[in-house]
Every structure is written in structure tokens, then in C-alpha cells.
């Protein structure tokens, strides 16, 4: 485990820019907590829950770093969003944003399966498929409208309403066929980009091939279109054949990933299992299994089941072996926090922050625990941690809110308004941001750094 931690530290230095500049959608929505449970948004009639977790996010960045380098992509320009959903899915949307379902991470048996999927999604970004996607949707709609008009013309000529319905259906079918042909071409292009990037990075494409076969098997078991991945990524025999042929001919197909990848993959899956399916996790990892992933999964599962003593016993066993692991300390802080044991929680979070001073989510948890105390020293420390958190991750709304609470407890009305103005601006409430910035400027000393910050918010709210 010490070797793993040293590897993490080395890799984290390389990917720190991505960590610092990553603006997660969950953060913009005000995600709660520095660990897996997150915020809930609503789309298309169903809940979409975005999650935040420092360790899992950095595992994904760790996986992607060699792919970024092979593709010549700036890691800080791509944002990774985790969705709490059991279904196998990953997709690109809304600019250079990759969305990954927890179900995909939990189902992937090996890290190279996840890397293959992520490389494929990066292929969509580098291929410019998002802008083309919008154009193709418009073209499909145009053909559907043309078909509808054709049907209406037939109805007017014949006096039969059935002709209009037939024309509309025909237009929809024409549009759908065109769209599916287009997306299939994009999928093939993204597959080609993915295997190219992985070859250049010295990573075998076996994982991507294996994952596609998993999807193919699922589609055979369930009704067509039941899997969201194959709806957004049309799965064809040609694609699988292409990957099989590439694996047979690539010079790197027999390359194995460094063992650290397997270690972080096991930890990630254990962590997700503990948070999202605690009772199943206890059954899956019995106490006789003393491996680190099993202990990690049980510590989190026991926490979620409010079995604090058992949770602490498991995490302490891990810390005895790896006393400098920041994520074990973070989990210990989570356990004590959930149990309402705030001083012990704060101490564990402090230890985690000492090891990973840039971990905004952990600092935010520490700030919240300290704000629940009554000591002036705790209040000042909470504000310090909130300030550092927003410095590293400017769109972490929860940290901004905690910063505002600290200023309110201190009786600093000008800074409260200023902080609220920042939140409003970062959540798109420009009119409210301008109003709050104006109130802050009335109280803050004119020309001071805070006053200038309020003035800047006012200008940005006006689009200047």
C-alpha cells in the first residue's frame, strides 16, 4: 500500500492541473459531501444523481492521463462527471464533458475496460462529434418535417387522413435511419481514435473489446434498446469485429497495466459498493476476507448502516497498515461525522488535509464539521478551509455557502453579501448576483480587495 501511495503522489503531481481546474456539474448544483453521495437533478422525468468523491475522481484522471498525453489533449480542458446510476453508460455532452455512470465503473472487471471506454469518449471530443451531432439532429428533423408535409399534401389531394399519418411516419423513419447511420459512423471513428490513443500509450485495447462484448451479451439477454449505452452508442458486429482484428494485430495487445492500476480499481469498486449497496456489500465481503478492498468496502457499508464501531474497526485496521493514506483518513472522518462525533471527525479530516492539502472536497467537509462547533477557533479554521477550497475549485458551491455561513457567524455582512453574489453568479443567477454585489459594495471599504471583487461580479453579471 505504501508503494501505491507513492505512485498516487507521483501521478497526482502530473494530473494536479486537472484536479484543480475540474468544474464538476455536481458542484455547480451544490453537491453535498466530499464522498460518494451527491446532489440530485431532474431530467426527462427521472432523478439524476451526480456524485463527488476525491479518490474516485482522481482514479478516473489517473486512468485518463496516458490517453490525454497520447491524444495531445490538455487534461484541464476535460471535465469528468460521475452519475449515480446502475446502468452501464458513459457519454459526452455539453462541451468537453465526459459523464460516467457508477454502474459502468462497478461492472468493469478490469481497469483497462474503463480506460477503453474513456478513450472512446475522448475520441468523440477530439473528433468534434458534438457539434456535428447538433447539425445531424437538425437534418433529421428537417427530413421528418418533409415527410410530414408530403403526407399532408397527399391527404389534401386524396381527402384521406391516413395518407397524412403515413407521410408523418415515413418522415420519422427517414430521419431516424439517417441519424443512426450518422451515429454509427461516429462510433466507428471514436473506436479508431480510442485504439490509436491506447496503442500510442502502450495500453492494450483488449479491455475495450471485452466491454463491447459485455454490452453485446446484455443486449441478447434483454430487449433491444434496454441498455442506455447501446442506445447512445449503436453497437454493431462491425465494431466488435474491428476491435477483435485490432487486438490480433496490435503490438501492444499483450501489454499488462502496472499493478497500481489494479489496486486503485479494486478500491474504487469497493468504495462504490460500500456507499451504494451497503447490505449487499456486507454479504459480498464477509469478515473472513481481510484484503484491503474488502475492509474498505465494509468500513463504508457499516457506516451507511450506522454500525459505527464496526466501521471504525475496519478503517483502523487499514490505517494501521497505511497510516499516510489520505482517503482512509477521509473515510474515518466521514464515519465519525455520520455518527455525530464531530471533534473526532474534524481530527480525521485534518489528517487527510495534511496529506492532500489541495483536496477541496475534504476541506469542505472539515469546514462543515467545524462550523457545527461553537469555538471561535473552530469558526476561523472553518473559514480558512472554505477559502482554500474555493481557491482550488472556484465552482464548488457548497464551499462558497459554508464560507458565507462563517462570515455570517462572524457578523461580517459585507462578506456575506459578497459570498452570496459569487454563488448567484456561478449558478447563473446574474440579476441576483448584481443586486447582491451592489449590497456588498455599500458595506465594504471602497477600493479594498473585497470591494473590487464585488465590482468585478457586478461587471460580469452585466456580461462585461
What features would you highlight for this structure?
464 residues, 5% strand, 71% helix, mainly alpha
Give a written overview of the molecule:
- The protein is mostly helical and 464 residues long.
- It has helices spanning 2-21, 25-28, 54-71, 102-107, 111-126, 129-158, 161-201, 206-221, 228-232, 237-249, 259-276, 278-284, 292-304, 308-321, 326-338, 342-355, 360-371, 376-392, 397-409, 413-426, 430-443, 449-461; strands at residues 39-43, 46-51, 79-83, 90-93, 97-101.
- A five-stranded mixed β-sheet has the order 1-2-3-5-4.
- β4 (90-93) and β5 (97-101) form a beta hairpin.
- α15 (326-338) runs parallel beside α17 (360-371).
Total helices: the number is 22
Summarize the biggest pleated sheet. Answer: 5 strands, mixed
| Tally of DSSP β-strands | 5
Low-pLDDT parts are 1-34, 39-46, 145-165
SSE layout and pairing:
Blueprint: H1 2-21, H2 25-28, E1 39-43, E2 46-51, H3 54-71, E3 79-83, E4 90-93, E5 97-101, H4 102-107, H5 111-126, H6 129-158, H7 161-201, H8 206-221, H9 228-232, H10 237-249, H11 259-276, H12 278-284, H13 292-304, H14 308-321, H15 326-338, H16 342-355, H17 360-371, H18 376-392, H19 397-409, H20 413-426, H21 430-443, H22 449-461
Parallel strand pairs: 3-5
Antiparallel strand pairs: 1-2, 2-3, 4-5
Helix pairs in contact: 1-3, 3-5, 3-7, 3-11, 5-7, 5-8, 6-7, 8-10, 11-12, 11-13, 12-13, 13-14, 13-15, 14-15, 15-16, 15-17, 16-17, 17-18, 17-19, 18-19, 19-20, 20-21, 20-22, 21-22
Amino acid at each position: 500500500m505504501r508503494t501505491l501511495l507513492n505512485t498516487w503522489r507521483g501521478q497526482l503531481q502530473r494530473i494536479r492541473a486537472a484536479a484543480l481546474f475540474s468544474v464538476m456539474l455536481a458542484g455547480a448544483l451544490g453537491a453535498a459531501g466530499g464522498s460518494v453521495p451527491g446532489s440530485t437533478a431532474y431530467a426527462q422525468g427521472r432523478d439524476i444523481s451526480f456524485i463527488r468523491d476525491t479518490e474516485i475522481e482522481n482514479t478516473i484522471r489517473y486512468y485518463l492521463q496516458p490517453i490525454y498525453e497520447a491524444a495531445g489533449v490538455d487534461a484541464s480542458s476535460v471535465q469528468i462527471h460521475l452519475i449515480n446510476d446502475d446502468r452501464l453508460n458513459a457519454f459526452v455532452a455539453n462541451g468537453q464533458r465526459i459523464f460516467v455512470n457508477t454502474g459502468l465503473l462497478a461492472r468493469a472487471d478490469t481497469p483497462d475496460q474503463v480506460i477503453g471506454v474513456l478513450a472512446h469518449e475522448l475520441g468523440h471530443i477530439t473528433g468534434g462529434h458534438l457539434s456535428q451531432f447538433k447539425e445531424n439532429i437538425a437534418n433529421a428533423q428537417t427530413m421528418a418535417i418533409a415527410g410530414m408535409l408530403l403526407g399532408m399534401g397527399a391527404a389534401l389531394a386524396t381527402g384521406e387522413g391516413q395518407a397524412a399519418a403515413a407521410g408523418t411516419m415515413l418522415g420519422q423513419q427517414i430521419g431516424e435511419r439517417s441519424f443512426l447511420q450518422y451515429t454509427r459512423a461516429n462510433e466507428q471513428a471514436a473506436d479508431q481514435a480510442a485504439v490509436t490513443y491506447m496503442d500510442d500509450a502502450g495500453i492494450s485495447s483488449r479491455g475495450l473489446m471485452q466491454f463491447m462484448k459485455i454490452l453485446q451479451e446484455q443486449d441478447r439477454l434483454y430487449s433491444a434498446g434496454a441498455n442506455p449505452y447501446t442506445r447512445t452508442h449503436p453497437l454493431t458486429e462491425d465494431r466488435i469485429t474491428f476491435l477483435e482484428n485490432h487486438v490480433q494485430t496490435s503490438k501492444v495487445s499483450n501489454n499488462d497495466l502496472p499493478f497500481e492500476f489494479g489496486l486503485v480499481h479494486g478500491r474504487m469498486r469497493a468504495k462504490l459498493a460500500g456507499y451504494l449497496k451497503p447490505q449487499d456489500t456486507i454479504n459480498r465481503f464477509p469478515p473472513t476476507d481481510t484484503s484491503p478492498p474488502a475492509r474498505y468496502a465494509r468500513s463504508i457499508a457499516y457506516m451507511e448502516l450506522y454500525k459505527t464501531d464496526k466501521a471504525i474497526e475496519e478503517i483502523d485496521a487499514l490505517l494501521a497498515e497505511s497510516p499516510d493514506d489520505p482517503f482512509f483518513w477521509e473515510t474515518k472522518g466521514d464515519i465519525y461525522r455520520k455518527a455525530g462525533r464531530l471533534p473526532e471527525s474534524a481530527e480525521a479530516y485534518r489528517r487527510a488535509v495534511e496529506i492532500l492539502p489541495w483536496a477541496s472536497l475534504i476541506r469542505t467537509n472539515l469546514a462543515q464539521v467545524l462550523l457545527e462547533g461553537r469555538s471561535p477557533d473552530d469558526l476561523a479554521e472553518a473559514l480558512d478551509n472554505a477559502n482554500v477550497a474555493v481557491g482550488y475549485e472556484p465552482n464548488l458551491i457548497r464551499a462558497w455557502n459554508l464560507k458565507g455561513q462563517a462570515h455570517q457567524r462572524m457578523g461580517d455582512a459585507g462578506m456575506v453579501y459578497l459570498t452570496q453574489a459569487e454563488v448567484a453568479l456561478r449558478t447563473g443567477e446574474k440579476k441576483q448576483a448584481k443586486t447582491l454585489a451592489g449590497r456588498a459594495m455599500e458595506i465594504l471599504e471602497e477600493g479594498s480587495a473585497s470591494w473590487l471583487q464585488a465590482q468585478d461580479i457586478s461587471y460580469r453579471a452585466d456580461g462585461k
